[in-house]
Amino acid sequence: MDIASAFSFDMSYCGPPPSPDTLWGRWNFDPVLLAGLLCVLGLAAFALRGAEPRRQLAFGGAWGIAALLFISPICALTVALFSARVGHHIVLTMVVAPLLAFALPVRWRHGANLLPALSVSTMALWLWHVPDFYASAFMHPALYWAMQLSLLSSFAWLWLGLLRSPNPLAAGVTALASATQMGLLGALLVFAPQPLYLPHLATTLAFGVSPVDDQQLGGLIMWVPANLPLLAVVLWRLVDVLQPGRSAAR
Fold first, then answer.
1. Quick one: 29 exposed, middle or buried, by C-beta within 10 A (0-12, 13-18, 19+)?
2. What is the pLDDT of residues 180-207, one digit of tens each?
3. Helix (H) or strand (E) run with residue 164 in it
4. CB 178 within 8 A of CB 230
5. How far apart are CA 188 and CA 182, in angstroms?
6. How many whole angstroms separate alpha carbon 249 and alpha carbon 120?
7. Using CA atoms, how far apart are residues 77 and 249, in angstroms rounded to an integer?
8. Closest Cα to residue 86, out of 220, 213, 180?
9. Is 112 left (phi over 0), alpha (psi -120 to 50) or beta?
């Protein structure tokens, strides 16, 4: 039996791989997910009732994007295409996570030591892209949510430090280090000579791409566009280093 076709998606949280014809009908109205999203929204609305409008807007943006990622057919597409799941992870870590960090209370300051947050976020990213661990996220909903929540929480912690560290040089270096390790992982995927991820070996051809091409596209997404928010932080923090009066005034 072909190993690729024998891979089971019976316990995949987002369901079986879709085809282009069925994709638009694959909305995820899991009642547990919807209830969880509504609970989070309600708690946040209460906690942020007296907050600055920009913090409320940041949380609203984070919540809306996260809801779109998990409710829309994007969820099903990540079962078929590795590049879609990479894109899903990048939006989660480079868009939703910084918005959440920005929405947190101002009193949640971050110390000058950013190494723990950098280490944990880096380990989470690399761990969940090890082929065996990656494949395990299709085998049970609990593992799927462990992947998503560990990536989101670890990068929200990292972004809290990047945005609020009192040491702009440390924040800039940390952002550069995070961008470098993510770019390295992306480059390894781009130049890998063969497909590495068993779940997608038999699911990409329906969308007109080979498993290798799909993997290379995922690596390219991680290598280039995923790094743009981090590089923006590097430039912003560099300006703070060169103009210390600006940082003190802020």
1. exposed
2. 999 999 999 999 999 999 999 999 999 9
3. helix 141-164
4. yes
5. 10
6. 31
7. 46
8. 220
9. alpha
- Contact between 78 and 88 under an 8 Å Cβ cutoff? The reply is yes
What gap in Å lies between CA 237 and CA 242, rounded to an integer? 9
At 245, the pLDDT band (50, 70, 90 cuts) reads low
| Nearest-angstrom CA–CA distance, 66 and 73 | 13
**What's the alpha-carbon Rg for the chain, to the nearest Å?**
19
User: In this structure, what is the dihedral angle of CA atoms 169, 172, 177, 182, given to the nearest 10 degrees?
Assistant: 170
- Tokens encoding 209: 């791409």
Q: Under a CB-based contact definition with an 8 Å cutoff, are residues 116 and 160 in contact?
A: no
Residue 78, phi then psi, degrees to nearest 5: -65, -15
Integer Cα distance of 231 and 238 in angstroms: 10
Q: Which residues contact 243 (CB under 8 A, 6 or more apart)?
A: none
Residue type, position 240, single letter: D
CB 129 within 8 A of CB 1: no
Which residue, 167, 222, 165, is CA-closest to 190?
222
